Structures
1.
Amino acid sequence: METILIVDDEKNYLVVLEALLGAEGYEIVTARDAKMAVSIIREADLDLVITDMKMPGMSGMELLETCKKIKPEIPVIMMTAFGTIEMAVEAMKKHAYDYIQKPFENEKLKLTVKKAMENHRLVKENRLLVEALSDRFRYGNMVGKSKPMAKVYDLIDKVSGSKASVLITGPSGTGKELIAKAIHYQGPRKKRPLISINCGALTETLLASELFGHEKGAFTGAVAMKKGRFELADGGTIFLDEVGEMPPALQVKLLRVLQEMELERVGGTRTIKVDVRVLSASNRNIKEDVAKGIFREDLYYRLNVIHIDAPSLQERTDDIPLLVKHFIEKFQDGDSKKKIELRPEVWKALYAHPWPGNVRELENVIERAMVLYTGGVITLDDLPKTLVDTETQFDVERFVPSHIPLPKAMEEIEERLVRRALAQSKNVQTHAAKNLGITKSLIQHKMKKYNITL
Ligand SMILES: Nc1ncnc2c1ncn2[C@@H]1O[C@H](COP(=O)(O)OP(=O)(O)OP(=O)(O)O)[C@@H](O)[C@H]1O
Ligand SMILES: [Mg+2]
C-alpha cells in the first residue's frame, strides 16, 4: 500500500483530503505543521508528500527544501490558495513534482496524485534494477572452484528459483551474506528488493518494530507510522542475518509471519498480507540451541527447509590463489593493472595460516598488503605479524600431546609436516619435497614410514 503524507494547518483540508485519497486506496498520514511533517518524513516510508504552501512557522517551500535534502526521491506536490504563478515556478525549480491550486477539483487532484505515484514507482524500480546490476551478485561474483564451493553453487542454482526458506550456516566471514545475495539476484524476485536485517544488533523492541513496523504512538518515540522490513520486502526477499540471536518473544511472532504470510504492525490491529521469501543466516549452531530450548524447534524447521553450509577457508585452501588474485584486483589502484607477485614464502604463510576469520580475514590481509608493498612484489614484511608467526613459530602445545618420549614426538611432528606439505602442494611430491627442503626420494621414504598414501 502506498503512503501519502498530507500537511496543512487547516484541519478541514486534512479531513477532506484524507477521505478523498483514502478512498483511492492510499494510506494517509497527516500533519498540522511542517515541523511535525519533517519528523514524519524522517521516520516513515512515504511515497508522496502533499503540502500547503503557506503555514505558520516553517513554510511549505522550506518543507519542500528539507524533504529534498533528507529523502530526495519522494515526490512533493504543493498546494496553494494564495498562489501566484511565481511561487509555483519557484517550487518547481526546487524540484516539487507539481502544484495544485486551492480550491481544487477532486478529479484533477486524484489524477495528479496518480501520476506522481506512477513516476515514483518507476524511479524506485529503476533504482532497484541499477543496484542489482551494479552489485552483480550473481555467484559469478563469488570466487572459488574448490569442491565445497561447487556444492554451494549447485545449491544456489537449485534453490534460487523457488520460494523455499534457506538457512545459511557457517563460521564468520565465510560469505554467508554473499550466498544470500546470489540466491536473491539469481531468482525471479531479483527486480524486487532484498531487505536485510541483523537480528543480533538490536534490542527486542527495536527489532520488533524494524521487522514488523509500528503504528503512530505504539511506544514513546513512535511519532509516525513506520513500515517494517517484511512490508518493505513485499514481493522480494528478506535476509534475517544472525537469526539465532532472535529473542524468544519475537520467534513466536516470526513463526506466524512465516506460516501465514501476514502480520500486524506493533501497536496496530490491521492485518497486512505480505509475499516474502525468507533467507536467514547464523554462525552459531541453531540445532544445539533448539536442543537447549533457546530456539523454537518449529521455527527452526520453517527457516531450514533448505540448508546451505558455507565452508570455512581451511576446508578450501585450494581457493586461496584465486581469492588472492580477486582481492589484489579489487584493491589495485584504478587503472594500474600491473602484475603483482607474491614471494614463495608469502604463499607458504597464506597456506599455513588457520584463517579463523575466513575469507574476510584474507581480504583484509590482502588489502593491507596492497597498501604496504613496493616494487610489484608482496613480501613477508607486508603481512601482519600473526601470519608470519604461524609460519615461523612452532606451537608445540598444539601439535604434540604432552608426556610422550622425544623420539616419538619428533615422529609425530614429522608425519604432520609431511602430510601438510603434500596437501598444500595438491599431492605433487616434488613440490612437497621442495617446500620441506628435502629430496623426492626422502619424502617417499617418509610417506612409506608413516603409511601415507595419495
Ligand atoms: N567466495 C567469496 N568470494 C569472494 N569474496 C568473498 C567470498 N566469500 C566471502 N567473501 C568476502 O568476504 C567478506 C565476508 O563475507 P560475508 O559478509 O558474506 O561473510 P559472513 O559469512 O556473512 O560473515 P559473518 O558471519 O561475520 O556475518 C565480504 O567482503 C565478502 O565479499
Ligand atoms: Mg554476515
2.
Amino acid sequence: MGIPTNRYSKITDKHPREICLLRSFPCAWGKCSFCDYIEDNGKDGVLMAQMNRQVLGQVTGEFGVLEVINSGSCFELPRETFEDIDKVIETKDLKQLFFESHWMYRGQVADLRQRMGVPIIFKIGVETFDYDFRQKVLNKHADFKEPCEVAEYFDSPCLMVGIKGQTKEMIAHDIHCLKKYFPLGTINVYNNNTTKIRRDEELVRWFLKEYSWLNEDPAVEVLWEITDFGVG
Ligand code: SF4
C-alpha cells in the first residue's frame, strides 16, 4: 500500500460522521503479520502535525461527530495534533469522537477519555477473539483471553474476516462476542496485500451469505475494502 492521498471523508450511512486519516509516529508494535499500512508513519512530529492541521481544517462539524484514524494507535499522534483536535471540538462544536488504539495502550484510554472533554467511542483492532489465531498467526501482541477484558476499556472491536486458516466457527464466535459484549463494532473483510497472509475466497463467500443481516444492523459496520470509509 502506498501513501494515502485522500485523508478526509464523510460517512453518511451508519453513525454519520466526518473522518480524518492523520499521520503519526511509527506503530510501537509494528509486527502484525497482516499489516503493511505503516508506510504512512513518520518521525518528524512538526511536519506531520502541520499536515494533520490541514486535514483537520476540512472538518465542518456538520454531524457533530469526528473519527480520527492513523496507521497505528491514536496515542502515536503528535502532541500538537491533539491540541488541534481540541480546537476543532471547540470551534466546530463537536459532541463525540471516534479514536482507535492497540491493546498495549489500554492503560491510557481512561485518561484520554477524560482529557478530550467529549465522549469517545474507542475502537480496538481485535481481529479475532480466538487467542491462538490472533497471537500466533496474526502476531497481534494483544494477550487478552476473554472479550469482557477488552470491553473494560474499549467500546468497539474491529474484527477481520476471511483469512486463510480462519474457520467458520471462529468467525461465528467473533460476531457473537461482538454483539454480546460491545455496543458497536467494525468488520473488515480481508483483502490481500503485500504480506504473506492470504484471503480465503470461500470463507468470504460464506460470510457474505451467512451474515448479510449485518448490513441492516445499525451497530456494525462491514468494510469490504480498506478504503470503504472514503479515506486511504
Ligand atoms: S498494531 Fe496496527 S499498525 Fe501496528 S502492526 Fe498491528 S495492524 Fe499494523
3.
Amino acid sequence: MSDTLTHDGGCLCGAVRFQIRLSTPTFNICHCGMCRRWSAGPFLAVHSDGPARFSRDEGLTWYRSSRWAERGFCSRCGASLFWRLANRPDTLAASVEALDAPERLALDRHIYIDAKPDRYDFADARPRVTEAELMAELGLSAP
Ligand SMILES: [Zn+2]
Ligand SMILES: [Zn+2]
C-alpha cells in the first residue's frame, strides 16, 4: 500500500522489497562525496520513522561507510537503498528512487551543500545546509 507516509519500495531486481513509514512526506538531497560515489549522483532520501519491514531481504547487504554510518544495498543488482547510523538502526534513510510511488513527496532541503561540485545545480529555492551545520544539528562530530 502507499499513502503519503507509508511507502513500498525495492531494488532493481526484486531481491529486496520493503515498506517504511515516514514521519513527514518530504525528502532531502545529499550532495556529499560518499553519497555521490555510492549512488552515482546526489542521494535523494526519505527518513523512515523506525526500521523498515522487509518482505524480501535476501539481497540486502550493509557496508560500513564511515566511523558512524552504514549503507544498505542489493548485492545482486547493486541498487543503493539505505543509510543509517551504525549504532542507531532507527535512523534509517531510504532512497526516494527505490520507492514505488514517490510522486507526492516534497523536497525539504539540501544537505552537505558545501560538498556539491560545480558541474550540476538544482533550480529549487529550498534551504541548503553545510556539513558543519548538519553535524551540529545531529550532535555529531565530523568523521
Ligand atoms: Zn536487487
Ligand atoms: Zn551523503
4.
Amino acid sequence: MTILETDRLLVRTWMPGDAEAATRIYGDAQVMRFIPVGVMTRPQIVAMIARMSDEHERRGFGLWPVTCKTTGRLIGECGLHVLPETGEVEIGWLYERASWGRGYATEAARAVLAFAFDVVRLARVVALIDSRNLASISVAHRLAMRYERDGRYYDRDLGVYAKEIA
Ligand SMILES: CC(C)(COP(=O)(O)OP(=O)(O)OC[C@H]1O[C@@H](n2cnc3c(N)ncnc32)[C@H](O)[C@@H]1OP(=O)(O)O)[C@@H](O)C(=O)NCCC(=O)NCCS
C-alpha cells in the first residue's frame, strides 16, 4: 500500500519480497556505521521488517520502505517510530550507498514530517543523531529540525533534533 508519493519516490508498506533488497542495505557496514544495532543478518532483518509492519498495523505509521518511482527499486527506509522509553516519536532515514547524494533522504523525510503533523496530528517529532554522522545532521538541518540537546537513547549518547508544529 502506498503511504506517500513525492516527485521521485514512493513510501509504501513492507511487502513479502523486500527482505532481499533490505539485506543489501542493512547488511552494509558503511550504511550501518552510526546505527546502534550495527550490521544486521538476514534473520534479524526479517524480524525487524515484521516489527516495523506490526507498528504500522497498530498505529497507522511506522518505518516504511522507500522506492524509486521510475525503477521500483527499494533504496532505503524512512518513517516514524515511537520510542518506548519516552513516548516521543522519532523520524528515521537510512539509504543504500548508491542512493546517497541525490536528495532522496530529504525528499522522503519532508513528506514523512508533513504526514506526522497533518495526518497523525503530532505536535513534535525528534531525530536522534550521532554527532559524527554529518550527512544525517545535514538532512535534519535541511528539514529545519533544530538541535536541542544530547540524550541517552539506544544505549548511546545521541543528539536530539526536534521539529514542532508551526
Ligand atoms: C544520512 C543519509 C540518509 C543522508 O543521505 P544524503 O543523500 O546525504 O542526504 P540527502 O538525500 O538530503 O541528499 C543531500 C545531498 O544530495 C545532493 N543532491 C543531489 N541532487 C539533489 C536533488 N535533486 N535534490 C536535493 N539534493 C540533491 C545535495 O547536494 C546533498 O549533497 P551534499 O551533502 O554533498 O551537499 C545517508 O548518508 C545514509 O543513509 N546514511 C546511513 C544511514 C544513517 O546513518 N542514517 C541516519 C541515522 S540518524
